[in-house]
Amino acid sequence: MNTPISPAGLALETRGLCKSFGALMVANDIDFRLARGARHALIGPNGAGKTSFVNLVTGALESSSGRIILEGEDVTSLSQAQRVKRGLARTFQINQLFRGLNVLENVTLAVGERHGVAGKLFRPAGSRRPIIEEAYALLEQLGIAEEALRPVREVAYGRQRLVEIAVALGLQPKVLLLDEPAAGVPSSESGTIIEVIERLPSDLALLIIEHDMDLVFRLARRITVLVQGTILIEGTPQEIASDAQVREVYLGERAHS
Amino acid sequence: MSERPLSVIDAFARRHRLHPLELLPWALAVGTYFIFPDYLALGAQILAMTLFGLSADLVLGYAGIVTLGHAAFFGVGAYTAGYLAAHGVGAPIVGLLAAVVVAGAVGLISGFIILRTQGLSILMLTLVVCVMLQEAANKMTSITGGADGLQGMQVEPVLGIFRFDIFGHTAFWYCLAILFIGWIVARTLVHSPFGRSLTGIRENVMRMHAIGSPVTRRLLTIYTISAAMAGAAGAVIAETTGLVALNVLSVDLSGTILVMIILGGVGRLYGAFVGVPLYMIAQDRFSQIDPVYWYFWIGLLLVVVVVFARGGVLGLIDSLIHRVRRWR
Q1: pTM: predicted TM-score of the whole model, two decimal places
Q2: Domain interval for residue A148
Q3: Is the domain of A82 the same as that of A107?
Q4: What is the pLDDT of residues A124-150, one digit of tens each?
Q5: What is the CATH number of the domain that holds A50?
Q6: Do A92 and B11 touch (CB under 8 A)?
């Protein structure tokens, strides 16, 4: 296996990434670069392949061809779990939480996996204090500590979105893929989520997949536009906002809907 | 640090402590020995089947693996202990340990294939394993005795001291001791980080993958442990009854054990302790009251539980307690 040398400063890179389901190309030769500490948004109309891109990068979907390089290491052939161990985490557009378990335990499961104790057969889970304290500290950081002992399913949806982020942060990732972090949250509450994202450590590379343009323009310093599985353009928010092509395929469509 | 987080973390840790009610089944079992001395044989069977139910709950209730073939491991355990007892190795503990190893190995090998699939495929494959093993036992008459059952078991006294008697005194204590060990194993497991991660897999397997959990390996581990425990239950039944026939490997038995733990409540460790005795006592009573149609009453009991108490008897008790608390 030849390990490609990635230019210094790249947290994540894809080269010629392709994925097709029969005749449908959800990823078509995607060359994408995410710098360390990036605040990068991936936007595009519905069905552009944004979530498929996340699934390819995390390994939930197997790519048809192309390569995925994480922190300079080719991870294309690695499993999802192995990629997580190397510092790649994600959140989901629709909450994927352990609904019957309480908020603290949701995060504890992730922290436990990271520390490699999640497979231990002896000693109760509750006696592993450092793990639980770390999970609790995350809840405090995100302002949801008072929900710690409530089952997730009883927690308000907007706060569940924060649990979604807390679980991913429990993995202490180097690269975090946020799939529509404010999806399904009323705009009055999305401010809290934006603030939480703004406060994330600056060395964490963030890729935000988003529909909400307010959120994108507030958080992102670079934007990539994906259309029909292909990168249309990449640039600063100003460049994207003023690009005629983008207005036509993306912002234009929004104006119609 | 402020006082609050400590108390939250304490509350979180406290869930693992032994609740006094968890000792109730053992008190009842010991009480049964003295109060119903005429029912010790049935009691021993119930205890052994409770161990089988406990093993099924680990797989179904905790890991969320829907199996219709758990009797495969029970049967393998029963035949292993039975075969040894029929060939000069009659020490019950030796037969039991051999059954644990062989059933665990069968669980590991079949699980390795089965657990790569999901949903209905798992259901079908567990069924297939069970049917195949039963048919193999049916054909290998020289080892299993085929349809006639295993012949000539000579079970020696437990530890060379306690002889199995016709009243079931020894059988009762033997079964109770083995169930107790099985319970300690199961309880330790479900409270361990591993056990909690199994619950995570049951709750949301997609998220477990996304937090880097080796899901298939975890499932294979619990499947193997559960198979070994089911094998122990089979061995204990074989040794205490002195009989092994093809029905120990039947899909019928696989279904019955599920019915029993659903009756009690799955995924709560004590479902088997409630459901198995309830089912077997009801079966015993109904079959005496109504020898022809007793199965109808069992069916009715199950329908009532499914309609009115989705979480089984324990689920019903839970919701009643919940309601009473809200009233006050």
Answers
A1: 0.89
A2: 94-172
A3: no
A4: 888 888 899 899 999 999 989 899 889
A5: 3.40.50.300
A6: no
